[in-house]
Design a protein that fits this description.
The complex is a heterodimer of chains A (about 350) and B (about 675).
Chain A lengths: L1 H16 L3 H12 L5 H7 L9 H29 L22 H15 L3 E2 L5 E2 L1 H4 L19 E6 L8 E4 L4 H10 L4 E10 L11 E11 L4 H15 L6 E8 L2 E10 L16 E10 L1 H6 L8 E8 H9 L6 H4 L2 H4 L5
Parallel strand pairs in A: 1-5
Antiparallel strand pairs in A: 2-4, 3-4, 5-6, 6-10, 7-8, 8-9, 9-10
Helix pairs in contact in A: 1-2, 1-4, 2-4, 3-4, 5-10
Chain B lengths: L1 E3 H4 L9 H10 L4 E5 L2 E4 L11 H12 L23 E3 L4 E11 L6 H9 L7 H13 L4 E4 L8 E5 L5 E3 L5 E3 L5 E4 L4 E4 L3 E2 L11 E9 L1 H11 L4 H8 L6 H14 L3 E3 L4 E3 L7 E6 H8 L5 H10 L3 E4 L3 E6 L9 H12 L20 H15 L3 E2 L5 E2 L1 H4 L22 E2 L4 H12 L6 E11 L2 E11 L1 E3 L7 E2 L2 H15 L4 E4 L5 E11 L6 E9 L1 H6 L9 E6 H8 L15 E10 L4 H10 L5 E10 L8 E10 L8 H19 L2 E2 L2
The chains are: A alpha+beta (about 350), B alpha+beta (about 675).
Chain lengths: ~350, ~675
C-alpha cells in the first residue's frame, strides 16, 4: 500500500540522518511515540479502515512497526558502541617523554671508528694529553730541529708537569696520539694491534677547517710479515664499513717522519661525485687519513727488532669524517655545543 | 711550489696538458692542489727540498712518465774558471760547509719579458735583472743565491761567522733586526751584511746604481738556518730550502748558471774566477737495497728491471750485488740515508694502486679496551639516557675564565705559546667550558639546557679524568602539569647516578666554593666523618659568573663535577654478585617531626641510624614543609622508615619499640617535636 511504503521511505531517511543517540531518540519519538508517533497512528488507523482493506493494512502496518523497532534498536547499538566512554583520554595529546640526551657527533664518529677496528681485533688504548718531547717527537723520528716539526706547530706548557710514577716531565700538549703508541710498544712485545683515540692539539688559527684542538684515532699494527698491502686492505675495509660500502678510495704517496713509505687515503668527494667542486678543491677527492709503514727508527727507539718486525700505522681525523657523515661544512659547529645542533644527532 | 708545465717541458718531454702531468705527480707523492692555466701548485713535503725546484719536479715527472731528463743547465761548460776570487772569502764557522762567490760587472735594469713572466707565473715579484736571475736560478735548480753590491761591501771582503750578541742588521725587508750568537751571518770588514741562508742586508742591496756585484752561492747547515729563521720570525724562499737541506754539490753549478744568464740577457759579465771554499767535501752516500726486503715491506714483488729503472730515473746509481743492489745516492736526495728510503722510492713510482689489498693474519686475540675506555663509554650511555646532552668544549680557556675555578693558592696550568688570550690556560675544571656552551645556547632561544662533558682537567700536578655537568631551565615541560624549573637537587642526582655507575657510595656536605653561590654548594664525598674523601661537588653557579656570560644574573644554573680517577680509586674492585631477595616482609613507618630549619637532614638521618636496631633497612625523607602549622624558623620533616629482619617476620610491637626509641633520640638531640 502506498501509504505504508511512503512512511517506510520517510523513516529510512530520518534514520540515516540520526548520528547521535539523542537524534535517534527524536526519530523514535517521531515514529513510535504513543501520542503522536507516525507509525503508531498508522496502526491505530487499522480499526477505522474499510473492512476489506483491514487485513492487508493490518499486516503491512504491524510489519512496518516491527521493522522500525528493529532498525532503531540496531542503530542504537551501533551508536552506543561508537560513543566516547566515560574516562576516555584524548590520545592525540603528546606523551610525557622521559628526557634523553645524545652523544656528541664527534663521539658518535669516534665510537663508530673504534667499533670497526675492534671488530678487526684491535685493542682500544688511552693515554695522556700532556706529553714529553720524547714520546711526542723524538721517538717518532723527529729529533729537535727536524723541519717536520713545523707540520705540527706545538703548544708548550709554561711550566713542566711531573709525570705520574716518575719519568720524563710533561712539557707539551700532544700533537697526535702517536705518543700512546710509543708507550704501548715500550711496555708490550709484538704482535701489536691497537687504536689510540683522543684529543690532540696544534697551534692552528680557528677557521672553518681548523681548530686548535681536534680528535684523532690512530692505529698501529706490528708483527712479522706486515706489509703495505695489509695496510691498504685494512683501510679499504675501514672505508667500506664507515661509509656503508658506497665509496671509492684512492691511496696516494705522502710523507710523515714516523712512517715510510707514507700514504694518504682519499675518498671520492660526495659534493660532486668525483667531478670536482669547491669542497674538494676541484680534485674530486677528499683526504680522510694519513698512514704508512712504521719507520724502522721507531722500532729502534722502542727496542724492537726492526729486521724481524714490520708494521703499519694510520691516523684518522674524526672531524673530517664527521663533516662528511653529517653533511656540514664548518667544524666550529662541533665545539659551539648549540643544543639545537646537538639535538639533531641521530641517537 | 708553483710549476708551469711549459717550464717542466724544458727538461722533460711530457704531454703539455697540465691535468695529465698533475695526475702523475699526485700519483707519485707530489700532490697537485690546484691548476691555474699552465701552472701546477705542487705540495712539496718537508723531506724533499729537491722538489722545491723546477728541475727537481721535472726529475719526478720524468720518472713517472719514464721519459729521459735533460742535463741540469749549470752543467754546461763553465762561464768563469774556478780560482781565487777578487773578493777574499773566509769561513770561520762549521755552519757553512761550502761557500762559492763570483764577481760580475753588471748593467742593472729590468729583466727580459720571458724571464720576468716566468717569475710572475710562479708568484715571485720581478725586481731587477740581477736579483731576478738569482731568483730564477733558485727556482730552476733549487739553490738559493744572493747578490751583493761590491761597492757597499767593506773591504771588500766576505767573512762567514757567528753573529755577535746584539749585533744589528737591517734586512732587505727594511726591518732593523737584533742578532744573537746562535745565528750565522755573512759579514764584511765592518759588520753583518746578511743573515746566512735567510735574508740579505738592505745596505748592500743591488740597486740601479750598482755596477759590480758579488754573487754568493753557499751551503749552510739546515739547523743553523732553521734556528735563525725561527728566532727572527723570518721565513724566506732561501731559508725554506736551506733548512730542509740544499744540494751541497750545487753552489758552483748554480753560480755558473747565473753567470750564463747574466751574459745571455746582456745584464752583465763575469769579472774574474769563481771562488769555491769547500774544505771538507761531503762523503758520497751508498745504501744497500735487498730485493727480498722490498717485497716484505710492500707486499708486492717489483721486477728487478723496474727497481733499476725507477732508481736510475731519479738519479740514483744502483749496482747489482748478491741480495739486490748497492745504490749510490745523489747529493740532492738529502732524505735518503737507509734502505727503507729506497724502498719508498721504488714503491711510490711503482704505484701504490698496483699494490694488492690483503688483510693481516691475527695471531693473538685482542685484549679488549683498557678499563678507562670501557668506563667512559658506560658513563656516557648512562648520562645520555638520564637526559643529558654530551658536549665537547675546548680544553683551554682565557685566564680570567679559569681563575674562579682554581682553588686559592694555586695557579692554572698555562700555555707557554698560546694562540691568543682566549686559549691561555688549560681548564682546571670542566664547568667553565660547559657554562660557556650553556650560555651560547641560552642566548639562542634554548631555555632548557642540560649538558655533560667527559675529559681531562689540569692542575700544576698534572691531568685528571673527570666528568662535569650543567643544568638550567625546566625539569618538566608537559601540558598536564605546571612547568617546574630544575634545582640544585637535579644536579645532585646526577652525582648520585655517576657514583652508583662507578660503584662508590657518596654523600653530600655543605661546602664553600668560590664559583658557587654561598649556601648553595655541596661537596660530594665518600667515606665517614672528617676522613671523608672529596670526589667532586655540585652547586648553583655564582650570579656574577652567570652575568659575565651575558645572561641575567638571576638565572639559575646548576653544575657538578666528579673526579673520575678519585671515584674509581675509592670504588675498588666491583662485585657483580646480586644479593638474594628478602624472604620476610618489611614494615614501613612514617615519622613527621618539627625541627630547627637550619638542622641538616644528614644529622637527623645520623641520629636515626645511631639509635635504630639492625632491622632498620631504609631511611628516606619524603616531605619537607614550612608554613602554616609550623612555627617560624622551623621545618616539618617527614621520614619514611623501613624495617625488616632477614630471619623472621617483624611484629608491630617490635617496630613500635624501635620507632619510639628513635623519636626520643630526635627529641633529645635536636629538640624535635613529633607532628600529630
Amino acid at each position: 500500500m502506498r501509504i505504508v511504503d511512503e512512511l517506510r521511505e520517510e523513516f529510512r531517511a530520518a534514520l540515516a540522518g540520526a548520528r547521535t543517540i539523542a537524534e535517534l531518540d527524536r526519530v523514535r519519538d517521531r515514529f513510535l511515540s504513543r501520542g503522536h508517533g507516525r507509525v503508531t497512528a498508522l496502526v491505530k488507523s487499522i480499526a477505522s479502515a474499510p473492512p476489506d482493506e483491514r487485513p492487508t493494512l493490518g499486516a503491512l502496518a504491524n510489519g512496518l512497526k516491527q521493522e522500525v523497532e528493529l532498525e532503531l534498536d540496531a542503530r542504537a547499538k551501533l551508536l552506543l558502541a561508537a560513543a566516547t566512554p566515560a574516562g576516555a583520554v584524548d590520545v592525540t595529546l603528546p606523551g610525557r617523554r622521559p628526557p634523553f640526551g645524545r652523544r656528541h657527533p664527534l663521539t658518535v664518529v669516534r665510537e663508530k671508528v673504534e667499533d670497526i677496528f675492534q671488530a678487526m681485533g684491535y685493542q682500544i688504548i688511552a693515554g695522556p694529553e700532556l706529553e714529553d718531547d720524547w714520546h711526542n717527537f723524538e721517538a717518532l723520528n723527529m729529533p729537535p730541529e727536524h723541519p717536520a716539526r713545523d707540520m705540527q706547530d706545538t703548544l708548550y706548557l709554561a711550566t713542566p708537569v711531573p709525570a705520574p710514577g716518575g719519568g720524563r716531565p710533561r712539557t707539551l700538549l700532544r700533537t697526535h696520539t702517536s705518543g700512546m703508541q710509543i708507550r704501548h710498544m715500550e711496555a708490550h712485545q709484538p704482535p701489536v694491534r691497537i687504536i689510540a683515540p683522543g684529543r690532540v692539539y696544534r697551534r692552528d688559527d680557528i677557521d672553518a677547517t681548523h681548530t686548535p684542538m681536534f680528535m684523532q684515532v690512530e692505529g698501529l699494527v706490528v708483527d712479522e710479515g706486515i706489509t703495505l698491502a695489509d695496510l691498504k686492505g685494512t683501510l679499504q675495509i675501514f672505508a667500506e664499513r664507515f661509509f656503508d660500502g658506497r665509496v671509492r678510495t684512492r691511496f696516494r704517496p705522502s710523507f710523515f717522519p714516523y712512517t715510510e713509505p707514507s700514504a694518504e687515503l682519499d675518498v671520492e668527494c660526495q659534493g660532486c661525485g668525483g667531478r670536482g667542486c669547491a669542497l674538494c678543491k676541484q680534485s674530486g677527492w677528499i683526504e680522510v687519513l694519513g698512514c704508512g709503514m712504521v719507520h724502522p727508527a721507531l722500532f729502534e727507539a722502542v727496542k724492537y727488532d726492526a729486521e724481524r718486525y714490520t708494521g703499519f700505522a694510520f691516523g684518522i681525523g674524526i672531524e673530517r669524517l664527521a663533516l662528511r657523515l653529517y653533511g656540514i661544512d664548518d667544524i666550529r659547529m662541533f665545539y659551539e655545543n648549540d643544543v639545537r645542533f646537538l639535538g639533531q644527532v641521530a641517537p | 711550489m708553483k710549476a708551469p708545465v711549459s717550464w717542466l717541458r724544458e727538461f722533460v718531454d711530457v704531454p703539455p696538458a697540465p691535468k695529465e702531468v698533475a695526475v702523475r705527480l699526485t700519483g707519485c707523492g707530489f700532490e697537485v692542489g690546484a691548476i691555474e692555466g699552465d701552472v701546477l701548485d705542487v705540495e712539496v713535503w718537508a723531506n724533499r727540498p729537491d722538489g722545491l725546484s723546477i728541475y727537481g719536479l721535472a726529475r719526478e715527472v720524468s720518472t713517472a712518465f719514464d721519459l729521459p731528463l735533460k742535463p741540469m743547465p749549470g752543467d754546461a761548460p763553465p762561464v768563469a774558471p774556478v780560482g781565487a776570487s777578487p773578493v777574499p772569502v773566509s769561513i770561520g764557522d762549521a755552519g757553512c760547509a761550502r761557500y762559492a762567490l763570483a764577481t760580475a760587472d753588471v748593467r742593472v735594469g729590468s729583466s727580459p719579458d720571458w724571464l720576468a713572466g716566468r717569475l710572475t707565473a710562479v708568484g715571485v715579484r720581478p725586481i731587477n735583472n740581477v736579483v731576478d736571475i738569482t731568483n730564477y736560478v733558485m727556482l730552476e735548480m733549487g739553490h738559493p743565491m744572493h747578490a751583493f753590491d761590491i761597492a757597499r761591501l767593506g773591504g771588500p771582503e766576505i767573512r762567514v761567522r757567528r753573529a755577535r750578541a746584539g749585533e744589528k742588521l737591517t734586512t732587505l725587508d727594511g726591518q732593523a733586526r737584533s742578532l744573537d750568537d746562535t745565528m750565522l751571518v755573512i759579514a764584511d770588514r765592518e759588520g753583518a751584511v746578511a743573515v746566512a741562508g735567510v735574508m740579505g742586508g738592505k745596505d748592500s742591496e743591488v740597486s740601479a746604481r750598482t755596477t759590480r756585484i758579488a754573487i754568493e752561492s753557499a751551503w749552510f747547515q739546515p739547523a743553523v738556518v732553521r734556528t735563525a729563521s725561527k728566532r727572527l720570525g723570518l721565513k724566506t724562499e732561501a731559508s725554506a730550502r736551506f733548512e730542509r737541506g740544499a744540494d751541497i754539490t750545487s753552489p758552483v753549478r748554480a753560480i755558473q748558471r747565473a753567470l750564463a744568464l747574466l751574459k745571455q740577457t746582456g745584464a752583465g759579465d763575469a769579472a774574474g774566477p769563481v771562488a769555491d771554499i769547500y774544505p771538507r767535501p761531503a762523503p758520497a752516500r751508498r745504501v744497500g737495497l735487498r730485493r727480498a726486503r722490498i717485497g716484505l715491506v710492500l707486499g708486492e714483488i717489483v721486477p728487478d728491471a723496474d727497481v733499476v729503472r725507477i732508481l736510475s730515473r731519479l738519479g740514483f746509481k744502483p749496482s747489482a750485488d748478491a741480495e739486490g743492489w748497492q745504490v749510490d745516492v745523489p747529493a740532492h736526495r738529502v732524505d735518503v740515508t737507509r734502505e727503507i728510503d729506497l724502498i719508498e722510492e721504488v714503491g711510490r713510482h711503482w704505484g701504490f694502486d698496483r699494490v694488492p689489498a690483503t688483510f693481516p693474519a691475527v695471531r693473538v686475540p685482542s685484549a679488549g679496551p683498557v678499563p678507562g675506555v670501557a668506563r667512559e663509554r658506560r658513563l656516557r650511555r648512562i648520562l645520555t639516557a638520564a637526559g643529558l646532552q654530551e658536549a665537547v668544549t675546548f680544553t683551554f680557556l682565557p685566564a680570567a675564565a679559569a681563575a674562579p675555578f682554581v682553588p686559592a693558592g694555586q695557579a692554572p696550568l698555562a700555555i707557554a705559546n698560546p694562540l691568543s688570550e682566549k686559549f691561555a690556560v688549560l681548564r682546571p675544571s670542566l664547568v667553565p667550558g660547559l657554562l660557556d656552551s650553556l650560555a651560547y645556547s641560552r642566548r639562542r632561544e634554548s631555555d632548557t639546557v642540560r649538558l655533560f662533558e667527559m675529559g681531562s682537567t689540569f692542575r700544576q700536578s698534572g691531568e685528571r679524568p673527570g666528568v662535569g655537568w650543567i643544568l638550567t631551565g625546566l625539569r618538566t615541560d608537559h601540558w598536564s602539569e605546571r612547568p617546574t624549573p630544575v634545582d640544585l637537587f637535579d644536579a645532585m642526582g646526577v652525582a648520585d647516578v655517576l657514583a652508583e655507575a662507578v660503584g662508590v657510595e657518596v654523600r653530600t656536605r655543605p661546602a664553600d666554593l668560590p664559583w658557587f653561590a654561598r649556601g648553595r654548594a655541596a661537596e660530594v664525598v665518600t667515606g665517614a666523618g672528617e676522613a671523608a674523601l672529596a670526589l667532586g661537588w655540585v652547586g648553583q653557579i655564582r650570579a656574577d659568573l652567570v652575568e659575565a656570560r651575558g645572561l641575567a644574573p638571576g638565572e639559575a644554573i646548576y653544575a657538578g663535577e666528579i673526579d673520575l680517577a678519585a671515584a674509581v680509586d675509592a670504588a675498588g674492585a666491583a662485585s657483580l654478585a646480586i644479593q638474594p631477595l628478602p624472604r620476610y616482609p618489611s614494615i614501613v613507618r612514617d615519622v613527621s617531626i618539627v625541627v630547627d630549619e637550619r638542622l641538616p637532614a644528614a644529622d637527623v638521618r645520623g641520629t636515626i641510624r645511631a639509635n635504630a636496631p639492625e632491622t632498620l633497612v631504609g631511611v628516606r625523607e619524603f616531605d619537607r614543609y614550612r608554613g602554616q602549622g609550623v612555627p617560624a624558623g622551623q621545618v616539618s620533616l617527614s621520614v619514611r622508615l623501613t624495617f625488616r629482619d632477614p630471619g623472621r617476620t617483624l611484629t608491630d610491637s617490635d617496630v613500635q619499640l624501635a620507632v619510639d626509641r628513635i623519636v626520643r633520640a630526635l627529641e633529645r638531640d635536636h629538640g624535635a617535636r613529633l607532628r600529630g
